[in-house]
Design brief:
heterodimer, A: about 475 residues, alpha/beta, Alkaline Phosphatase, subunit A, 2 domains, 9-stranded mixed beta sheet, two-stranded antiparallel ribbon, 14 helices, disordered N terminus, B: about 775 residues, mainly alpha, 5 domains, 32 helices, about 45% helix, globular
Chain lengths: ~475, ~775
């Protein structure tokens, strides 16, 4: 049985809070800067602590399912029958600057059908998403301006094409802190540490950086570096730590009180316990077989399940990367690729929404699905699709968003968002708003001025909220 | 989605604190009036302009009521008498606003309604107004020049103190006077064993040996301490330590935030790192050190290997400029590159946040949007290239530089074009041409073994968007590019062209345009010339911070009105003045600081002083701190006997378990994660970082407990004690190596019991485990 949701203070058997183990994996919580420890003046201390919420939040958590590479809207969630009608032709509207040369219109071979009560049309590639479509708010009118992966990814993660600004998750962590002092506010699940800049905290204090774990491993030992000692058993290590603690306590007594010395002694103990406790929280293998099957035993499915385990234990923001690399970047053989790739994603994403709902967590957890851009309705190399930032689809579920709603539209072929256009800053403003944060007030003073996630932009999509 | 892009960030931000829902009238303002003001009025009528049009500002309630040259902008409750309504009405021949055309009647009606209902405006007392400082918003440059940090340097007489006999150097009088003013006393002098450890880590990033500690502790000659400092300053280890501090300021790294065809990693970036280390060891005067990094090649007496100094900008982060993107996008990306240089130079060297003025005049400091573009123009007039570091015929050198550059560019372009399966006709011939060219270049460069370094060359950078599908970089060697003011940061909206020149507020009178090439040498000359007082203050403050772990002015990269003023302004001024007088010699500055009584204080906690000044701003002690990653890792290697002191050359990878060189020689990447460095707060080199943090996290401890590297060091350390006959001797040997002291009898007892216990329970002999414990102690990682 899955454990019930524990209140933050609920202790586990050994007097250790259920959530105590992850104390600042990667400088998350408990990452005490020396200056902080020495009682920085109030102003500076405020800069480190949570600033919000500014008003009553609808959502407490976010799970962002990031479709690395840019999934094709016209094959998944934005049906365009006109593509078939004008197959191979190149309308004037195709003359948008994308990354590569493109040819004529490429119809989607996948059938769309109106699904659920809401009747939102979903591609046959996503049968399970179709089953939960009444829980989704589908936005078909997303757009950005940069057709290259890295800047476009920076844009959707941080509101700017440069790789220096804080990411959405770190703003959330900065704005709200962790729900529980024993957990990091922001967890990034990615198969590679080299996407690091997508969970960076930029100029925000380092404790708001995403704590990264490789979810393609199911064994926590492999997921968290240096988690276990391959030479010393727990008993021998305990003795080592006892001696260290004795030495450090004597040193502390001789030096006089010092917050840094004390916090390091505490961190050492947490690290020791973490070795055992993390084994539980990060271990999706402890879920009942039925649940594991529902999510699918795939990297993405396990990532979704892990996201639920973390959210349930108080993590604010989980960012799950669909991998490896940038799978949705279908420049070639798109149809075949989608047939192979969609099932695992479809299963995991749908299971997450369904499972959260079943556990009463969907109301307070916002799930966001989407990539850095969409793909062109015209073909690249005959059977692929190029990057298309001018119009693409994302969906949101739970967390105070309306459900069973389809918002906005692209033009008749799916090139550009034309109706109720939504840009990245609007998305960010909306996510923050659901969490009780005013995107214009969530600011950080750096290098001489106040910065915002949304810079001078952003409109909260109030019309899409419950 | 129309939104007022120009609504300056700060403006929208500062509107915080209002709760629109509480007041319907404010809600009306927020919904109707504010957006209209932002979209149509504030571009000309706000404090972000040094001189708002007609003296009128509409960006706060007070400003609106105060009005401009024609009087108050409105009379609350009386729309018909309000100037703003008249202007919007477009009926008065001399008063029609906005000048771009009459607004829709609906909007004018909103203004009428708003004023009739009392003109509720929540924008009262916004911080911008409160921030009215000597060089606050909107104040003319002339007033801005009176800001403390821009004043000429002067020496001050040492202040009188009640306590006599404590001061050793001039610094001390300033410190003591301040302590006394606050009813505090300095801490007693630190013991000699602690002092030599502090000084060694401080100057060389390494710890002393047990023997060195004992010798120093026993040396009673009056100049023992001064001699110690001289010995350490003369050690090549000194440059490795202090050069690394500079590399933080210079945000040095060996690649770019991403790795695409137009921003490939820099294979010779280490040559700049080596030059920096050599420069510190040679105590090159700081003003010359700066000038060389902008323009060593243009200075008299130039030696070819000084080309390495140009890596300061030559290794700056670059963003990928994908030729498939449109002209405007590429211009923006190039603009981000220039912005990065403006930011690194202005915050790093001048302690000014000039990059804040990219889209509008600086909100708080006397830096205009034009100033920004005048500086950015210097960087738009140079290009990052590889250059030879040996003497060569100038023409041959030039050819080599551009062949290298062409190969990089052309390979990138070719790679991009080859990806296109359906080739547009206009790029066809280009491909064949590119292929031929790259092959030839490769051949030629393969045969060339001239050592190169990453530098800059004067070369105007334009963006060529004339081919519909491809955007080319238009590089014009020898030409310079004065940038237009990109209005509100938008490259598609260029305004007046601004000649390349220095910041107005730091110039005497109107700044002269730069005339030679990009103007990089002139810029450097200004930084250490007209701006010398500021530059020296900023540098002395940084050096102070590295010595004490806390700065005199606690925002080391912001000496503007938003920064923190120094705690000891006269001390900072006096020290900076004497630093300049002493030929900008860093080693002089080290001596002056380290020989002081203030620096020699103990780090002990003191309840009364801690209560009065918890962050030790007044220097009642030397704040103890955690070793940074370089010192900590190097000290472990030193203790285990594994440390490899080979200097210079290509970098090594810290992730390799066998890596045993000093941490300064680690490969530094902007693109790839460095888990170990990151774990210990190493700064991200994507942009200038003002100062390092020191966090303590459980993950750091996991590294210590479980990493193979740590176990390996512990095993090597334990093996060093193998020769000792018994438990007592072995323990003593380990203590001496690790903590530079003998263990107490209790410590020997604890160690003996631990070794025995570990042996009883496992196959291990216990000494490696004990060694690991000693390396993990707070005593080891803590600098007191």
């Amino acid at each position: 049985m899955r454990p019930e949701r524990k209140s933050p203070a609920a202790p586990l058997g050994g007097g250790l809070s259920r959530r105590a183990f992850v104390e600042s994996l990667c400088g998350g919580l408990g990452a005490l800067s020396l200056a902080d420890a020495l009682q920085t003046p109030v102003a500076a201390a405020n800069a480190l602590g949570p600033t919000g919420p500014h008003f009553a939040p609808k959502a407490k958590h976010v799970v962002f399912l990031f479709m690395t590479g840019g999934p094709s809207q016209v094959d998944l969630l934005d049906p365009k029958p006109a593509l078939l009608q004008y197959e191979g032709r190149r309308p004037d509207s195709a003359d948008l600057r994308t990354e590569r040369m493109t040819g004529g219109l490429l119809p989607s071979p996948f059938a769309f059908k109106a699904r659920g009560q809401s009747g939102i049309e979903v591609s046959e590639l996503l049968p399970r998403t179709a089953e939960i479509v009444d829980d989704l708010c589908v936005i078909r009118s997303m757009f950005t301006f940069n057709p290259t992966h890295t800047p476009a990814r920076n844009l959707i993660h941080s509101g700017n094409i440069a790789s220096t600004r804080p990411t959405l998750g770190s703003w959330v962590s900065y704005g709200l802190g962790s729900e529980n002092r024993n957990l990091p506010g922001f967890v990034a699940l990615c198969d590679s540490p080299n996407r690091k800049s997508l969970w960076r905290s930029g100029f925000l204090p380092a404790e708001h950086q995403g704590a990264h774990f490789n979810h393609t491993e199911t064994d926590p030992k492999k997921m968290i570096r240096y988690l276990t000692n391959d030479e010393l058993g727990p008993q021998a290590q305990r003795e080592q730590l006892d001696l260290l603690k004795t030495f450090n306590s004597r040193h502390l007594a001789a030096t006089g009180p010092d917050a840094f010395l004390e916090s390091r002694i505490a961190a050492m103990e947490t690290a020791y316990r973490m070795q055992f406790e993390a084994m539980d929280a990060f271990d999706v293998r402890k879920e009942p077989q039925k649940i594991r099957e529902e999510y699918g035993d795939t990297p993405f499915g396990n990532g979704c399940l892990l996201a639920r385990r973390l959210v349930e234990r108080g993590v604010r923001y989980v960012h799950l990367f669909s991998g490896p690399g940038q799978p949705w970047d279908d420049h070639k053989d798109i149809n075949e690729n989608l047939i192979k790739r969609c099932p695992a994603m479809d299963r995991g994403a749908a299971a997450l929404v369904r499972d959260l709902k079943r556990n009463g967590l969907l109301d307070e957890t916002l799930v966001v699905w989407g990539g850095e851009f969409g793909r062109t309705p015209v073909s690249e190399a005959g059977d692929g699709r190029d990057h298309n930032p001018y119009g693409f689809t994302m969906w949101l579920a739970g967390g105070g968003m309306k459900s069973g709603v389809c918002h906005g539209a692209t033009d008749e072929f799916g090139f550009q968002a034309v109706e109720n256009r939504v840009d990245v800053h609007d998305l960010h403003a909306t996510i923050l708003h659901l969490l009780g944060l005013d995107h214009e007030r969530l600011t950080y003073r750096y290098a001489g001025r106040d910065f915002r996630l949304t810079d001078v932009h952003g409109r909260v999509l109030k019309e899409l909220m419950v | 989605m129309s939104r007022p892009v120009f609504a300056a960030v700060c403006f929208a931000l500062l509107a915080a604190g209002v709760s629109p829902a509480q007041d319907e009238r404010i809600a009306f303002f927020e919904k109707k009036i504010r957006p209209a003001l932002e979209e149509h009025c504030l571009a000309c009528h706000s404090a972000k302009l040094a001189e708002p049009m007609g003296g009128l500002r509409l960006d706060s309630r007070e400003a609106v009521l105060r009005g401009g040259a024609n009087g108050p902008a409105l009379v609350a409750g009386k729309p018909e008498q309000s100037l703003i309504v008249k202007a919007l009405g477009y009926k008065e021949p001399t008063l029609k606003m906005p000048p771009t055309g009459k607004l829709p009647d609906r909007v004018i009606e909103d203004f009428r309604y708003w004023i009739a209902r009392g003109a509720s405006d929540p924008r009262a007392g916004e911080p911008r107004e409160r921030a009215a400082q000597p060089s606050g918003p909107g104040t003319p440059i002339e007033e801005g020049r009176s800001w403390w940090a821009f004043q000429p340097l002067r020496e001050y007489a040492a202040p009188q103190t009640r306590r006599l006999g404590w001061s050793r150097r001039k610094i001390d009088a300033f410190v003591l006077a301040k302590l006394e003013e606050n009813g505090l006393q300095p801490s007693p002098e630190v013991d000699r064993r602690t002092l030599i450890r502090r000084v060694s880590f401080d100057l060389t990033g390494l710890k002393p040996t047990y023997e060195e500690v004992e010798l120093f502790a026993a040396d009673e000659s009056p100049d023992a301490y001064a001699k110690l400092i001289e010995r350490l300053l003369a050690s090549p280890r000194y440059g490795e330590r202090w050069g690394r501090h500079w590399l933080d300021v210079a945000r040095w790294a060996e690649d770019h935030p991403t790795r695409e065809s137009t921003n490939q990693p820099h294979p010779y970036a280490w040559r700049y790192r080596d030059w920096v280390i050599e420069a510190f060891n040679a105590d090159i005067p700081y003003d010359r050190f700066i000038r060389m990094q902008f323009a060593a090649d243009l200075m008299p007496g130039f030696e070819p290997d000084q080309m390495r100094a140009l890596g300061y900008i030559g290794n700056a982060p670059m963003y990928h400029k994908d030729p498939r993107l449109s002209r405007d996008v590429i211009e923006t990306i190039a603009g981000d590159d220039w912005d990065e240089r403006v930011d690194a130079v202005s915050r790093g060297l001048l302690g000014l946040t000039v990059a804040c003025a990219r889209c509008h005049d600086h909100k708080f400091d006397p830096i205009t949007n034009k100033d920004y573009h005048a500086l950015a123009g210097v960087f738009a007039s140079l290009w990052l290239v590889k250059r030879p570091i040996v003497a060569m015929d100038p023409q041959a050198a030039d050819k080599l530089v551009w062949d290298h550059e062409r190969l990089v560019r052309r390979s990138g372009e070719l790679g991009n074009l080859k990806e296109l399966d359906t080739i547009a006709e206009e790029v066809h011939p280009k491909i064949a041409q590119l292929r031929q060219e790259t092959e030839k270049l490769k051949e030629r460069l393969r045969a060339d073994d001239t050592p190169m370094t990453h530098a800059v060359i004067d070369c105007g950078v334009w963006i060529d968007g004339n081919t519909p599908t491809v955007t080319w970089m238009d590089l014009r060697p020898g030409e310079a590019r004065d940038l237009p003011v990109f209005i509100r940061g938008n490259v598609a909206n260029p305004g007046e062209i601004v000649p390349r020149r220095f910041l107005t507020v730091l110039s005497k009178g109107e700044p002269e345009p730069f005339r030679n090439g990009s103007g990089r040498l002139e810029l450097a000359d200004k930084i250490v010339g007209e701006a010398a007082p500021l530059t020296a203050r900023v540098w002395v403050n940084r050096v102070w911070g590295w010595h004490f772990g806390g700065h005199l002015a606690r925002t080391p990269s912001d000496f503007g009105t938003q920064g923190q003023a120094p705690t000891h302004p006269r001390l900072l001024d006096d020290l900076a003045a004497r630093f300049v007088d002493n030929g900008w010699s860093l080693k002089w500055l080290h001596r002056e600081i380290m020989l002081s009584a203030a620096y020699r204080q103990a780090g002990r906690w003191n309840e009364a002083a801690f209560k009065a000044d918890p962050t030790n701003r007044l220097l009642w002690r030397v704040t103890p701190r955690r070793l940074d990653i370089e010192s900590w890792r190097d000290a472990i290697l030193q203790t285990s006997g594994e440390l490899d002191l080979t200097m210079g050359g290509p970098s090594t990878d810290i992730e390799q378990e066998t890596a045993a060189r000093r941490t300064v020689y680690t490969k530094i990447s902007r693109a790839a994660a460095h888990p170990i460095l990151e774990l210990y707060d190493f700064p991200d080199a994507k942009q200038h970082t003002p100062q390092r943090q020191a966090t303590t996290t459980p993950l750091q401890q996991l590294f210590l407990l479980n990493s193979r590297w740590m176990r390996k060091q512990a095993a090597s350390l334990a093996a060093k004690a193998d020769g000792a006959p018994g438990i007592v001797e072995k323990t003593r040997a380990l203590y001496r190596r690790t903590l530079n002291r003998d263990p107490s009898p209790e410590e020997i007892d604890l160690a003996a019991r631990f070794v025995e216990l570990t042996r009883g329970e496992s196959e291990r002999d216990g000494w490696t485990e004990l060694a690991q414990v000693l390396l993990g102690t707070n005593e080891f990682i803590f600098l007191n």
